[in-house]
Write a structure and sequence with these properties.
The chain is α/β, with parallel strands linked by helices. The protein folds into two domains: 7-150 and 274-305, Rossmann fold; 155-269 and 326-346, Rossmann fold. Helix content is 38%, strand content 16%. The chain is built from eleven helices and eleven strands. The structure holds 6-O-phosphono-beta-D-fructofuranose (F6P). The site of 6-O-phosphono-beta-D-fructofuranose has 11 residues, from loops.
């Protein structure tokens, strides 16, 4: 009697990013062609798992998506275990998920997402589902891996924008402030700011003060460099509801009298075709996740540590955020390049 084919589900959850389809393709092609598995894809992240909203993924559906931005499955920020009543327990969403998982005859579930997705994946694993996570986000803030796919593509997009701001800042002798995403982490601002030759980089992890920022801008002006590029992470400390870019631009203009303009890069950092680096990284993650399933290595997240693919327990990942450390090698190098983190007068 032929052995029953393993049947696996894939979902993409949280903010989208370039590389999601490369990851879906990596899981699906490896599962189908290497391990003879059947694959289904749940639509709109965990919401599809709750509402049994899925599509069969054959090898044909996985062709032509390597370079495609976004996710063919769609995504959502559904959190099945989110407390929904004052007793604090989740209502029936997890039960429904378990029933759908069983009724569909699934042997495993691949959850592709960021921090929140890994936290839910770990909770589903603790409920008895065979789960493997893949770390995705432009923020690069998932604990347990060196780099998430989506990050490099966003760095490329933000760096290209910063490059363009140099010419207009120089032409108008202005201070240009560009706000990049990253949620509560400063990885995108640190990498794009350094790659783009920013003069000042403000990170949520490194407290700044506006006096230092203004002194840096004024000292450049006095050094016959009458323009500056200020790269701010969206999550920096600020006194009100204005965007980080608006707050910093207004403060510099008020205290120095210099002309400022701001750009909030926003969702452009999440769109379009993945950079080649992310196509490869997402494919590596996907293929390794399928291997973990074949080897019965569940309750894990596919990770890259020192450029090796390893399986990290989801229990170590869930609910944690990987933040920029003050002694991060790139922070030290950026300071040596004369980049200010707005903290010179905090010492
Ligand atoms: O997590 C990715 C991210 O783009 C963050 O950088 C940003 O703060 C957030 O998503 C925006 O969330 P939403 O897509 O729900 O507006």
């Amino acid at each position: 009697m032929s052995k029953k084919k393993k049947r696996i589900g894939i979902l993409t959850a949280g903010g989208d990013c370039p590389g999601l389809n490369a990851a879906i393709r990596g899981v699906g092609k490896t599962a189908i062609m290497e391990y003879g598995m059947e694959v289904i894809g749940f639509r709109s992240g965990y919401s599809g798992l709750i509402h049994n909203d899925y599509v069969e993924l054959k090898e044909s559906q996985l062709s032509g998506i390597l370079t495609l931005g976004g996710t063919i499955l769609g995504t959502s920020r559904e959190k099945p275990f989110k407390m929904v009543n004052n007793q604090g327990e989740a209502k029936d969403k997890p039960v429904t998920i378990l029933q759908n998982y069983e009724n569909l005859g699934l042997d495993a579930l691949v959850c592709i997402g960021g921090n929140g997705t890994m936290k839910t994946a770990n909770m589903l694993s603790m409920e008895g589902l065979n789960v493997v996570g893949i770390p995705k986000t432009i923020d690069n803030d998932v604990w347990g891996t060196d780099v998430t796919f989506g990050f490099e593509s966003a760095v490329d997009i933000a760096t290209e924008a910063i490059d363009r701001l140099h010419t207009t800042a120089n032409s108008h002798q202005r201070v240009m402030i560009i706000e990049v995403m990253g949620h509560n982490a400063g990885w995108l601002a640190l990498y794009a700011g350094t790659a783009g030759g920013g003069d000042i980089i403000l990170l949520p992890e490194l407290p700044y003060n506006i006096r230092s920022v203004c002194k840096k801008v004024e000292s450049r002006y006095e050094d016959n460099k009458p323009y500056s590029i200020v790269v701010v992470a969206e999550g920096i400390e600020k006194p009100d509801k204005r965007s980080a870019a608006s707050y910093i631009a207004d403060a510099i203009s008020t205290y120095t009298g210099l002309e400022t303009r701001e750009t909030v890069l926003g969702y452009i950092q999440r769109g379009g075709s993945p950079a080649p680096f992310d196509r490869i990284l997402a494919t590596r993650y996907g293929a390794f996740a399928a291997q973990c399933i074949a080897e019965g290595n569940f309750g894990t997240m596919a990770s890259i540590i020192n450029n090796k693919t390893v399986a990290v327990p989801l229990s170590e990942v869930g609910g944690k955020t990987r933040l920029v450390q003050p002694d991060d090698p790139l922070v030290i190098i950026a300071r040596r390049m004369g980049i200010s983190f707005g903290d010179e007068f905090l010492k």
